[in-house]
């Protein structure tokens, strides 16, 4: 197992890995804005190109990793941010309880892209159909798009200092041409540069303790509780409107953290234990379970009960080394005046942050185009990855970092040196289809006559063997049971069982005697049969001859 | 090599006479890896195989049966035998199968004949399965033989579809090209099955027939006649061209059937529907393939013939589902939009908004069968949707809201009433509603909480609650009886006399005529309730009804089975977490129901796990927004007084309370700080300094207490160093237990819980 690091800078794209030194340079890759790169399934990487209305598709899966562009998807406009809504939770045969393997042609449901002007494009990837375009989704350029809760909702943030939560179905629904957002957060005063949502999300927005962290150039980090059912105010309003069933609408602001610097990016511990804040003056770590003197620990994001109208708390963050006086004595008093001490992990002009799977390593992309892998606990840089280009100066800033774990195949394989046999042939085969081209005209959902074709492939069922066939390899006992039940059928039949006993004549006298009598009976029966048949035959023969003669007569007469 | 195993040759010798236990032992022994040895191959194993072959070729059916099973076990567990003799064994089994198929009727007339076919076919299938992905083996042993095997199987499939079709399906999918010469023959067999015997096949076999029919379209068309899609014309021929024609022909069959419904219902009342029907896909190229379905014979004078409509639709849905849900070696194009509109039209075929044709209104018998078939027609649409949603997941997201509003059409309403659900009809459509709930659950898992069509949800809740009651068959009888009581007594006694013997059970033991709901039904319903409770705050009545349902049913199931099924536990959890508008939590009820069930979740709810020394933020009921504007002195004084009033509270709370208050004082209004960042920085510092000093002066006692508190804790909890590791749990527990804590806090601050509600309203007024 290893973790793959994909990062792009203004003029390059690189696939590398955290623990090994393999590195691949993506050709013809240039990005302009952050979050312009998205991983599609485990196979593809989509990169929205700078100053070109084009998405480059790279193949990055396992042994088919290629440097060259696999496919180019032309776009109606230059896109800034990309995001996909996965089609997970496809309950294959949930009725029959059969698991299906993922098919080879497996695309997410939606591709979302935003433009400089804050326009939001929504394509269906399986067909390339442009489902909707939301002009002025934000008043200025969108900085990040993210789908949450299994793709039920989509969050966008923009330079217009707003964060908007959309419901995915509203954006694609046939009946809804002017999608309205679920809610708009406008607490920030300057462009929202980045946001993160807890990695663990509940099944519903209502019961999840899911948190949303937004950072902005106004030097604040705000944390919201996304569980919507809690806020009663809006619900009451709805009741007044006469709605039968209702829900609260706005997420609650839990806490605000202020920094002396404009914040450029944020990364969240996978278990929400800490967050890492990237600024032009370095990268800071903030423990969300903040340790005071002694054994006291504060949950900074503690939300109060559902029934209170709570004014969120405001903290200001102070860098640890700058705190005067002793280390720990001051923590309490600083806390009491709303100041939190946080560590500076790295002193560089951070543009992008991403955390590793286990939450111990932080990938820090800076404006010079290199990614430093830093261990959070020791604040040491373990490794620096740089683009494999000759002119380092012109690389530009890091725009995207994607980290995802993958299996290193050689380690897990039974026979070394063997390739992944079946998989190779199938995914390299001519059957693999290109991603459908993205259309430029909005699909007319209202027109019911359209067939709305999508490309789709259903995966193979997990076990091909029919349970009734009970392949002996899988379940020998079941197979044996099957044999037994069948054998009993044979045993019940006199003739067959007697035949079986015939072979045992040497050993079993009684059975042989039985056999003998049975045989005698049979022989007499057969003899009678033959007699009857010969008789019948003779009769027939006679009739035939008679008829033949008649026939001859008739012929002769003619 | 050790000699401590039975030689294969010994086993082989015994095999000849073995039966019963001995045979099973031989099979079990043959699985042993010791026989996978190249040295044994020449002598022992080939002897074994010769014996097996002898058995297979024997004229004795029992020997043949033994031979088949032995060869299957040997091939499965011994790769050596599989690769050297697999082909031989396969050929032997096949030749016996061919022979037996030749005398099908005579073989089947003996009672074990079916078993024999079963054995022959399944062992052949297993060996084919084993051979399939091995390149040399399948090239040399399998493919040449398939040419002979396939026609035999096709012949057999006429008589034993259930047995043979799964094997043919696999072969058809894997060795499409080899199958090619036999496609037409197979198609004839399948069409005759579909045409004549379809209704008499089991539902599994029906599906198999349809799937095989669909797989016939895996063959690629050579000639390029795909000009239907101009924009993608440069793609020469799609691999799915043939598949798509098949799919579209089936899809186009729906329109004529639906147009038949126009003879029953007055479609002209609904322009939208007419447009929709007009837009349904039709078969543009007259394809011979379609013609295999016989025409329907409907007669209004014989109302039962109308049932052919839903039957035909069901067949079409089966076939369409096969086309869209089978795994294919290449991606296929699925006209989701057309399928969706077919479903939509099917669901619109209801009397809810469309009147019957005028000329049909008088005939009672006819109207009766129309009333019966209309929901069945709608149900076919629901079935199709269910399959589409389960396979394609989010891809249909843009239709989901439409589906929900169409489902509303399926809920029967009382005639001439104002949106009252006709529960009598609902009761007779239980299975159909089961599918509806499954569909709704699948859809809801992709939707968010904001819906345009929430009215369906509340109607469905009513339906679910109604159908979840145990239903008694004699209910209507009793109703009639009550009615009769009012009438003359003589009439009633007459009735009783006539049927006395037959009816006594009904009146004495009515409980024996009760239908109970299956656990599957409850699982589906509970899932639906969980989704609704999570997504919406329901009005009081349905909410309480759901509560009542879950509690009574849980109790009943607990009494019956001794435990509460998982879906009910989940529902109870959800009810505890989402009390809705109710003031009273059912937590105690849920816990007493689950008393000894060791439920982690409820354990956490009752004993919130928090780290030692955690600072809680308590909400202050009196600390409202407006007061924050007040003078600092007031604030700190109030803080003090508050603290004093809590003097009986546990030390923890007090200390943290104090800290909290201080902090609140320091930063009075977060919104404002944000809006004027520059100003604020200055104000902020100044104030904070003042604050701290003042705070220290005014709340001396408090400070002292804090110190004490902290020291106490340090002495108690020494393991807090590991707190970060614990936090995962803590986050959860803290969140989940919020309500709990709050309640507790409120209890010793202000006992009445209603107060919190009042605060709320206050807050609202403020806003």
UniProtKB/TrEMBL annotation, chain A:
One Pfam family this sequence matches: WD40
InterPro entries: Apc4-like_WD40_dom (IPR024977), WD40/YVTN_repeat-like_dom_sf (IPR015943), WD40_repeat_dom_sf (IPR036322), WD40_rpt (IPR001680), WDR18/Ipi3/RID3 (IPR045227)
Presence of keyword Coiled coil: yes
Subcellular locations according to the entry: Nucleus
SMART domains with a match to the protein in the record: WD40
Record-linked Gene3D superfamilies: YVTN repeat-like/Quinoprotein amine dehydrogenase (2.130.10.10)
TM region positions: none
Domain Anaphase-promoting complex subunit 4-like WD40: 346-391
Swiss-Prot/TrEMBL keywords: Coiled coil, Nucleus, Repeat, rRNA processing, WD repeat
WD repeats, residue ranges: 135-167
Superkingdom of source: Eukaryota
Coiled coil: 523-550
Major localisation: nucleus
Function: Component of the RIX1 complex required for processing of ITS2 sequences from 35S pre-rRNA.
Sequence similarity: Belongs to the WD repeat IPI3/WDR18 family.
Quaternary context: Component of the RIX1 complex, composed of IPI1, RIX1/IPI2 and IPI3 in a 1:2:2 stoichiometry. The complex interacts (via RIX1) with MDN1 (via its hexameric AAA ATPase ring) and the pre-60S ribosome particles.
Name assigned to this protein: Pre-rRNA-processing protein IPI3
Species: Saccharomyces uvarum
Taxonomic lineage: Eukaryota, Fungi, Dikarya, Ascomycota, Saccharomycotina
TrEMBL record, chain B:
Location, primary (coarse class): nucleus
Pfam families from the UniProt entry: RIX1
Keyword Lipid biosynthesis: no
Region described as Disordered: 725-767
InterPro entries: RIX1_N
UniProt keyword list: Nucleus
Pre-rRNA-processing protein RIX1 N-terminal domain mapped to chain residues: 9-200
Source species, domain of life: Eukaryota
Entry similarity comment: Belongs to the RIX1/PELP1 family.
Functional description taken from the UniProt entry: Component of the RIX1 complex required for processing of ITS2 sequences from 35S pre-rRNA and the nucleoplasmic transit of the pre-60S ribosomal subunits. Regulates pre-60S association of the critical remodeling factor MDN1.
PANTHER family on file: PROLINE-, GLUTAMIC ACID- AND LEUCINE-RICH PROTEIN 1 (PTHR34105)
Protein name per UniProt: Pre-rRNA-processing protein RIX1
Organism whose genome encodes this protein: Saccharomyces uvarum
């Amino acid at each position: 197992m290893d973790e793959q690091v994909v990062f792009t800078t203004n003029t390059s794209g690189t696939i590398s890995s955290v623990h090994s030194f393999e590195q691949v340079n993506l050709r013809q890759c240039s990005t302009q804005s952050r979050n312009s790169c998205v991983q599609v399934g485990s196979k593809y990487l989509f990169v929205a190109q700078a100053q070109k209305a084009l998405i480059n598709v790279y193949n990055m899966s396992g042994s088919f990793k290629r440097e060259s562009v696999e496919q180019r998807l032309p776009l109606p406009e230059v896109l800034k941010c990309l995001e996909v809504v996965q089609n997970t939770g496809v309950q294959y045969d949930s009725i029959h309880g059969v698991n299906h393997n993922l098919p080879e042609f497996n695309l997410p449901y939606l591709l979302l892209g935003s433009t400089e002007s804050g326009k939001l494009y929504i394509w269906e990837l399986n067909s390339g159909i442009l489902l909707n375009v939301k002009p002025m989704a934000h008043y200025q350029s969108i900085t990040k798009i993210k789908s949450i809760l299994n793709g039920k909702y989509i969050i966008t943030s923009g330079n217009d200092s707003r964060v908007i939560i959309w419901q995915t179905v509203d954006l694609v629904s046939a009946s809804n041409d002017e999608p309205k957002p679920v809610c708009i957060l406008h607490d920030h005063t300057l462009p929202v540069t980045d946001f993160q949502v807890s990695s663990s999300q509940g099944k519903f927005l209502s019961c999840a303790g899911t948190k949303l962290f937004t950072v902005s150039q106004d030097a604040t980090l705000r944390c919201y509780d996304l569980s919507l059912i809690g806020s009663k105010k809006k619900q009451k309003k709805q009741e007044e409107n006469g709605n039968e069933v209702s829900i609260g609408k706005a997420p609650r602001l839990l806490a605000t953290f202020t920094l002396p610097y404009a914040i450029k990016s944020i990364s969240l511990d996978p278990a929400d234990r800490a967050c890492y804040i990237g600024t032009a003056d370095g990268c800071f770590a903030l423990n969300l379970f903040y340790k005071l003197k002694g054994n006291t620990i504060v949950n900074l994001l503690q939300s109060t009960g559902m029934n209170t109208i709570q004014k969120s708390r405001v903290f200001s963050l102070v860098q640890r080394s700058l705190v005067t006086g002793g280390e720990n004595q001051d923590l309490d008093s600083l806390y009491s005046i709303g100041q939190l001490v946080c560590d500076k992990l790295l002193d560089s002009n951070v543009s992008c942050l991403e955390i590793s799977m286990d939450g111990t390593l932080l990938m820090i992309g800076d404006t010079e185009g290199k990614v430093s892998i830093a261990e959070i606990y020791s604040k040491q840089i373990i490794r620096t990855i740089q683009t494999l280009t000759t002119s380092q100066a012109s690389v530009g800033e890091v725009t995207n970092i994607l980290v995802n774990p993958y299996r290193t195949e050689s380690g897990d394989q039974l026979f070394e040196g063997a390739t992944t046999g079946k998989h190779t042939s199938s995914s390299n085969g001519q059957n693999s289809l290109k991603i459908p081209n993205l259309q430029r005209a909005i699909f007319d959902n209202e027109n019911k006559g359209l067939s709305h074709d999508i490309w789709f492939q259903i995966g193979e069922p997990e076990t091909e063997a029919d349970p009734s066939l009970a392949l002996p390899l899988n379940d020998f006992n079941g197979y044996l049971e099957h044999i037994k039940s069948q054998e009993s059928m044979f045993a019940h039949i006199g003739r067959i069982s007697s035949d079986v006993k015939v072979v045992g004549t040497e050993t079993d006298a009684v059975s042989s005697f039985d056999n003998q009598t049975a045989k005698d009976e049979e022989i007499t029966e057969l003899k009678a049969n033959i007699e009857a048949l010969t008789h019948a035959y003779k009769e027939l023969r006679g009739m035939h001859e008679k008829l033949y003669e008649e026939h001859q007569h008739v012929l002769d007469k003619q | 090599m050790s000699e401590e195993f039975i030689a294969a040759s010994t086993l082989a010798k015994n095999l000849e006479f073995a039966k019963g236990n001995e045979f099973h032992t031989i099979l079990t022994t043959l699985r042993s890896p010791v026989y996978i040895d190249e040295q044994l191959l020449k002598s022992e194993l080939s002897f074994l195989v010769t014996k097996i072959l002898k058995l297979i070729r024997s004229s004795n059916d029992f020997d043949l049966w033994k031979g088949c099973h032995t060869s299957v076990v040997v091939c499965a567990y011994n790769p050596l035998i599989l690769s050297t003799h697999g082909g031989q064994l396969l050929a032997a089994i096949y030749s016996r199968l061919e022979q037996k198929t030749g005398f099908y009727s005579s073989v089947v007339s003996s009672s074990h004949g079916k078993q024999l076919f079963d054995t022959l076919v399944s062992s052949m299938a297993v060996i084919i399965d084993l051979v399939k992905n091995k390149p040399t083996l399948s090239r040399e042993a399998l493919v040449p033989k398939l040419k002979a095997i396939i026609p035999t199987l096709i012949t057999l499939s006429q008589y034993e579809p259930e047995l043979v079709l799964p094997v043919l399906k696999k072969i058809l999918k894997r060795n499409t090209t080899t199958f090619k010469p036999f496609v037409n023959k197979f198609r004839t067999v399948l069409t005759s099955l579909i045409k004549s015997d379809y209704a008499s096949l089991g539902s599994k076999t029906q599906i198999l027939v349809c799937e095989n029919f669909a797989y016939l379209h895996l063959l690629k068309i050579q000639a390029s006649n795909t000009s239907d899609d101009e924009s993608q014309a440069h793609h020469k021929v799609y691999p799915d061209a043939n598949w798509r024609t098949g799919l579209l022909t089936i899809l186009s069959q729906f329109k004529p059937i639906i147009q038949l419904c126009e003879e029953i219902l007055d479609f002209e009342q609904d322009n939208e529907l007419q447009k929709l029907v007009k837009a349904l896909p039709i078969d543009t190229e007259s394809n011979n393939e379609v013609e295999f379905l016989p025409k329907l014979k409907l007669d209004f004078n014989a109302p039962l013939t109308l049932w052919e409509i839903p039957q035909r639709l069901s067949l079409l849905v089966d076939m369409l589902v096969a086309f869209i849900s089978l795994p294919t070696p290449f991606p296929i194009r699925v006209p989701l939009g057309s399928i969706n509109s077919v479903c939509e039209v099917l669901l619109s075929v209801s009397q809810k908004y469309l009147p019957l044709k005028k000329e049909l209104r008088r005939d009672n018998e006819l109207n009766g069968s129309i009333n019966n078939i209309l929901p069945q027609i709608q149900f076919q649409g629901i079935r199709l949707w269910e399959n589409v949603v389960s396979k394609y997941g989010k891809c249909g997201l843009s239709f989901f809201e439409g589906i929900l509003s169409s489902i509303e059409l399926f809920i029967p309403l009382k005639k001439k009433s104002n949106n009252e659900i006709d529960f009598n009809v609902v009761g007779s459509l239980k299975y159909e509603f089961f599918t509806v709930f499954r569909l709704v659950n699948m859809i809801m898992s992709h939707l968010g909480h904001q819906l345009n069509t929430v009215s369906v949800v509340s109607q469905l809740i009513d339906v679910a609650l109604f159908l979840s009651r145990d239903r008694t068959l004699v209910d209507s009888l009793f109703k009639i009886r009550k009615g009769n009581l009012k009438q003359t007594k003589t009439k009633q006694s007459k009735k009783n006399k006539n049927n006395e013997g037959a009816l006594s059970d009904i009146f004495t033991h009515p409980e024996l005529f009760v239908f109970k709901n299956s656990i599957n039904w409850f699982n589906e319903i509970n899932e639906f309730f969980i989704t609704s409770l999570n997504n919406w705050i329901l009005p009081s009545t349905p909410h309480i009804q759901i509560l009542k349902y879950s509690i009574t049913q849980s109790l009943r199931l607990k009494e019956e089975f001794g435990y509460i099924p998982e879906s009910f536990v989940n529902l109870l959890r959800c009810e505890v977490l989402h009390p809705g508008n109710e003031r009273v939590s059912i937590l105690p009820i849920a816990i007493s129901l689950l008393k000894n069930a060791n439920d982690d979740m409820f354990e956490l709810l009752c004993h919130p796990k928090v780290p030692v020394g955690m600072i809680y933020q308590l909400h202050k009921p009196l600390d409202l927004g407006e007061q924050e504007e007040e003078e600092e002195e007031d604030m700190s004084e109030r803080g003090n007084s508050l603290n004093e009033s809590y003097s009986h509270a546990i030390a923890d709370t007090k200390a943290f309370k104090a800290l909290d208050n201080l902090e609140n004082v320091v930063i009075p209004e977060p919104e404002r700080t944000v809006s004027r960042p520059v100003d604020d920085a200055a104000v902020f510092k100044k104030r904070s300094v003042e604050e701290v000093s003042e705070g220290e002066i005014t709340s001396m006692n408090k400070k002292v207490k804090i110190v004490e508190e902290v020291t106490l804790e340090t002495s108690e909890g020494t393991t807090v160093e590991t707190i970060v590791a614990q936090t995962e749990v803590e986050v959860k527990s803290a969140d989940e237990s919020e309500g709990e804590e709050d309640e507790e806090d409120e209890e010793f601050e202000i006992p009445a819980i209603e107060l919190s509600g009042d605060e709320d309203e206050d807050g609202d007024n403020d806003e």
